[in-house]
Design goal:
A hairpin with a 6-residue loop joins strand 1 (4-6) and strand 2. The strands form 2 sheets. Strands 1-2-3-5-7-10 form a 6-stranded mixed sheet, sandwiched between helices. A 4-stranded mixed sheet has the order 4-6-8-9. The longest helix has 16 residues, at 29-44. The model has no long low-confidence stretch (mean pLDDT 94). Helix 1 runs parallel beside helix 2, helix 4 packs across helix 5 (151-160) and helix 8 (200-215) packs antiparallel against helix 9 (218-229). The protein is α/β, with parallel strands linked by helices. It has 10 helices and 10 strands. It has helices spanning 29-44, 80-91, 107-114, 141-149, 151-160, 166-172, 184-196, 200-215, 218-229, 234-244, and strands spanning 4-6, 13-18, 50-54, 59-61, 96-100, 103-105, 117-121, 125-127, 163-165, 177-179. It binds acetoacetyl-coenzyme A.
């Protein structure tokens, strides 16, 4: 049985479900490899306009697979295939949503931080408990968590290993929205479907521009944003025409 269940894209939305329930969907090197392959294929498939990642009712993911960690030698964290998989997730150009029920810990929380939106059900618990095994959030958590929720709260989570619930995650800006237990996937798919109605080119540009915030100084990213504004697309013409003709736009992604 595969560790990642991949749906057929429906209404432009591809659902990827982590499927290692006995290991609380821990992100083994194998599972990360499957995510990488699925996202590579989704990037090049025009029928996929958004991707929703989920786990099961107990866990979104309990993080890196602790049982793969060697007790000496080169840390498994630095393993090439792992790093390439994380890079693929980080660079995925289409909307990526997380639907979280249960635990999103360690690398599972870091995976959420790479998603564009995080829908958290009332059962969700987010945390960076690496400190409890004498480690730290090394898949981007030390950098992205403070940017998401602020330094003080991020340090509290990382230094104590304590978890937060869905309400707190939504208040702190880690989760986009809180929903009742069992509803995270349906809600994330609804949002993803809404996004598929928009121009895929414009959606891609929004993601690219927003992500520049993390990598570039403000004056540089503002000037790139201005240059991107000069782009003209058929979708933009169609959006304006549909507005003036009072009809629904039909975007072709050109
Ligand atoms: N890796 C490997 N196996 C894991 C795992 C993980 N991260 N998390 C849980 N499992 C396994 C358990 O070992 C157990 O397996 P067995 O049945 O073979 O004993 C099974 O999943 C069920 O786990 P529990 O019995 O503990 O289930 P629970 O519901 O009582 O608790 C939990 C769930 C709170 C997630 C708890 O399992 C836990 O604390 N897991 C560890 C979480 C963690 O420390 N994550 C950080 C990993 S390090 C990381 O991610 C590094 C990084 O950023 C670079």
């Amino acid at each position: 049985m595969t560790d990642l269940l991949i749906s057929r894209p429906e209404d432009g939305v591809l659902a990827l479900r982590l499927n290692r329930p006995k290991a609380r969907n821990a992100l083994s090197i194998g599972l990360l490899g499957e995510i990488r392959a699925a996202l590579d294929a989704a990037r090049d498939d025009d029928s996929v306009r958004a991707v929703v990642l989920s786990g099961d009712e107990t866990a979104f993911s309990a993080g890196a697979d602790i049982k793969e960690m060697p007790s000496g030698g080169i840390p498994m964290w630095g393993q090439r295939d792992r790093l390439l998989a994380w890079k693929t997730i980080e660079r995925f150009p289409k909307p990526l949503l997380a639907a979280v029920e249960g635990f999103a810990l360690g690398g599972g929380c870091e995976l959420c931080l790479l998603c564009d939106m995080v829908i958290a059900s009332d059962t969700a618990r987010f945390g960076q408990p690496e400190i409890r095994i004498g480690a730290f959030p090394g898949d981007g958590g030390t950098q992205r968590l403070p940017r998401a929720i602020g330094k003080s709260r991020a340090l509290w989570m990382m230094m104590t290993g304590n978890t937060i619930d869905a309400r707190t995650a939504a208040e702190w800006g880690l989760a986009t929205e809180r929903v009742p237990a069992g509803r995270a996937l349906a809600r994330a798919v609804d949002i993803a479907r809404d996004i598929t109605q928009m121009s895929p080119i414009a959606i891609g540009m929004i993601k690219e521009e927003v992500l520049m915030t993390y990598g570039k100084p403000l004056d540089e990213s503002l000037s790139l944003e201005r240059k991107l504004l000069l782009w003209q697309t058929e979708d933009h013409d169609e959006g304006i025409a549909a507005f003036t003709e009072k009809r629904k736009p039909v975007y072709k992604g050109r």
